[in-house]
Amino acid sequence: MNTEPVYVAGQWRPSHASGTFQADNPATKNPLADVYPISSWADVDEALDAAVEAADALRNVPGEQIGLFLELYAALIEAQRAPLVAMAHAETALPVRPRLAEVELPRTSGQLREAARAARTGSWLLPTIDTKLNIRSCHAPLGPVWVFGPNNFPFAFNSIAGGDFAAAIATGNPVIAKANTSHPGTTRLLALAAAQAAHEAGLPKGTVQLLYRIGHEDGARAVADARVGATAYTGSRAAGLVLKAAADRAGKPIYLELSSVNPVVILPGAIQTRGEQIAGEFVTSCLMGTGQFCTNPGLVILLEGAETEKFVAAVADKFRQAPVGTLLSSGVERTLAANLRKLVAGGAQILVGETPAAGAGYSHANTLLRVGGAKFLADPERFQTEAFGNASLVVTARSNAEAAQIIDALEGNLTGCFYADAGGNDETLYSQLAPRLRRRVGRLLNDKMPTGVAVSSAMNHGGPFPATGHPGFTAVGIPAALRRFTALECYDNVPAHRLPAALANKNPTGTMWRLIDGNWSQADVTAA
Amino acid sequence: MNTEPVYVAGQWRPSHASGTFQADNPATKNPLADVYPISSWADVDEALDAAVEAADALRNVPGEQIGLFLELYAALIEAQRAPLVAMAHAETALPVRPRLAEVELPRTSGQLREAARAARTGSWLLPTIDTKLNIRSCHAPLGPVWVFGPNNFPFAFNSIAGGDFAAAIATGNPVIAKANTSHPGTTRLLALAAAQAAHEAGLPKGTVQLLYRIGHEDGARAVADARVGATAYTGSRAAGLVLKAAADRAGKPIYLELSSVNPVVILPGAIQTRGEQIAGEFVTSCLMGTGQFCTNPGLVILLEGAETEKFVAAVADKFRQAPVGTLLSSGVERTLAANLRKLVAGGAQILVGETPAAGAGYSHANTLLRVGGAKFLADPERFQTEAFGNASLVVTARSNAEAAQIIDALEGNLTGCFYADAGGNDETLYSQLAPRLRRRVGRLLNDKMPTGVAVSSAMNHGGPFPATGHPGFTAVGIPAALRRFTALECYDNVPAHRLPAALANKNPTGTMWRLIDGNWSQADVTAA
Lengths: 528, 528
Fold this sequence. Notes:
Two copies of one chain form a homodimer.
Chain A lengths: L5 E3 L2 E3 L3 E5 L2 E2 L4 E2 L4 E4 L1 H18 L4 H17 L1 H12 L3 H26 L6 E3 L4 E7 L3 E4 L14 H8 L4 E4 L5 H18 L6 E4 L4 H9 L5 E5 L2 H13 L4 E4 L5 E4 L1 H20 L11 E5 L2 H16 L8 H16 L3 E4 L14 E6 H6 L1 H4 L7 E7 L2 H9 L4 E7 L7 H12 L2 E6 L39 E7 L21 E3 L2 E3 L7
Parallel strand pairs in A: 7-22, 9-10, 9-12, 10-11, 12-13, 14-15, 14-19, 15-18, 17-18, 19-20
Antiparallel strand pairs in A: 1-2, 3-6, 4-5, 7-8, 8-21, 16-17, 22-23
Helix pairs in contact in A: 2-4, 2-6, 3-4, 3-6, 4-5, 7-8, 9-10, 14-15
């Protein structure tokens, strides 16, 4: 059987492979037919060289042309919906409908189109002009970007089609995509479309490149290479921290999305007035995609009491009755079981979910655990172990003060939620607890589960370490997410004819927002 | 003799000292009278606890009150100009006039007032509102900030009065200042004023704290402590990289300004038409403050030729004739001599500056070195050794292509300059070389030396590693510099009465700029 070629420097060519791998179908546990290469450093090296050339050339490519690429690509993805969805379903066992075909694929093409708009309008540039001193600055591309995508969104966070890809490209950077090894076939199909769109849009060779897999040492070397601008990584905390250490040592920006248990605090008034409804919302959010969302609610904080017992019983009941989904891979199955054992070993009680493998293919019984606040506080690190999958941990606090302590013991998370009584009866407790949770999460939600991550300019899909590597950045939300892949470039006393268009006196698009002498404006600069 | 107390948790109290130190007068090499403590971990620990309390309290302090503090502080600094300038002069040997009294001190109070305006207007918040989805986000304080200030600006970059301090405070973060050990007395006087202003403005205890010195291990531990929000460090590359490694491992943001040789490229047409004038500008910039500016032009790139020889001779002549200034410390004297030896050992030729100590106090002869392009390219790392002080290295390229190679071999720098013929004769060469230098520097200047760092909204006092730790941030320029000390905080489906003022429908100041549904606006949000 032939090993699939890699896409380097504008060519599909055989990999300088050090080995091969196959993905498997999580629903059957059988390997899929296609064989993919594990690239040696020679592939990485060539890709980096090509990316540097592309980065240079892209500096002279107008945003309009980059926008065209992103739109052509979005259209190709939609045109190839059927094979893409079939392949992603085979590789991930995620449901075809609505998930892959009707939710994730349109989200992906939508994100690409939104990035296209940003590339065209320059909304990410933050042009800042001091007319008195003739000092002008704006953001600019950083250089070649590595994207390491996660296993759980084969389209929307795919290394070669997802949010990080779109953000890096829209800001004029070439991307070297490292496929997630659990869906190489989906990534290959996307790369074919990306390559075609890049060709049609006339982008430099090496703007988009694909490797399927590289060794761990080569990965650490790759993100630290002098030719690299930055790296975006979404995946396991352990692997992410290895890349972070390597990139940090070399002074290379790296944006990480590592892990998050997404605490949900349900206040007593909410449980009392609409406990049954919230139990339903919670279980739906928890088991959606077999619990394999970055923002899956893995930790629920409740105040002890009779109504809380009823709530927990209702949740347990729903967990028991819900169908058991398929997990993304043997690795997810193994890690979920191991992490649940770790929670149980610490003293968490199993409410639902005795059996390790309970469904078709890779799977684990829907699992609900419970631990008391005092026990949680005795070993908060253990009880924040992310059990990625269809599992959640209920923590019951004996008092408001204990609930506050539990929140204070939380690590950085992507999200945190409060459910409160609509009539205002939880307001005092909310005002005591919310400020504590606020600084531990990137996005604070009220009366809403965290699993939805709207593509909104105001979204923050980020949060304090270890949820991500830096609390000031978001991976979703345009234009903020785009600025991760940019440098601030200042022009001091540079004459008009040598300035980039965004900093010229004349507004380059007629509608670009620029900060001129402290005020945001779409006007031209009146000659200084 | 008594050891000076530290300022912790709102009290001047004896340090839990592990030792003491004294500054000396660089002009006489004699120790100054006052004795300062080297803090043990116990001081650090108490300061961190107090800072955490202050950080919590500051969340409820309006920007108006923080602005008041910054303005009271600026006024106190100006009221105490005479003792401050006298102390700074004794500790640094920097000239009283114009430098300390007429330039740096007013710059410092001016920066504090500009930060006050930012605190009041919220210009740093970037409020972003999606009215359709009711998702709203803005920047928010990060938590306690360590500021490690440099030796070369006893006021304007002082740990407890300079740009980093002002930026961290204006965004609602407490600061623990670690004094630069070469000017502890100046820092003490500033801290007295800061403490008084904080008291008068009613800020929480622990908003402003001062330690004079801590051990290296405690420093690394301090920046990585779980209680810390972020660190700002300006100083030597070696010490900075140790702190960076510690902070990075703990996932704590750290902003560094490490080193920069600030390349100046003088194109042939400029030399031909106004070589003598540029030679004067260059030497003035080079020797200003005895060359101890972060943006001191330490590397000049010239094209070989007869006019260039005349230019170099003119520069050498001026170096020889210029008075020899005093260096900031024995350490600067020692390091300058060592780094010059390193350049000479690599083959750089000494044009001016045989004698190590040539002036009063700590000093070194004004030193001009020269190396050919081929030699530079054989060991570019060595020839980019920053010789901090009154020294500069001329690199002569044999051809335009060699000049391009030299620029391509440059590390990240804060600034880069081009001088070109005003008549347009250098335009082609500029267009070949400038894009290469552009991506290696934070600020690109034309026909202007880099030593001036205007306090401008469009300024970038930053640049690619190793000049700083991240190319997207600046240490000077409001509001951008302020955002270093912030987290992005998103509110999803949060009802109006629980939103921070910046995200309410009503514009909180009537003039705050907010990004509402993709457009910058000072209006209220029309109810969604």
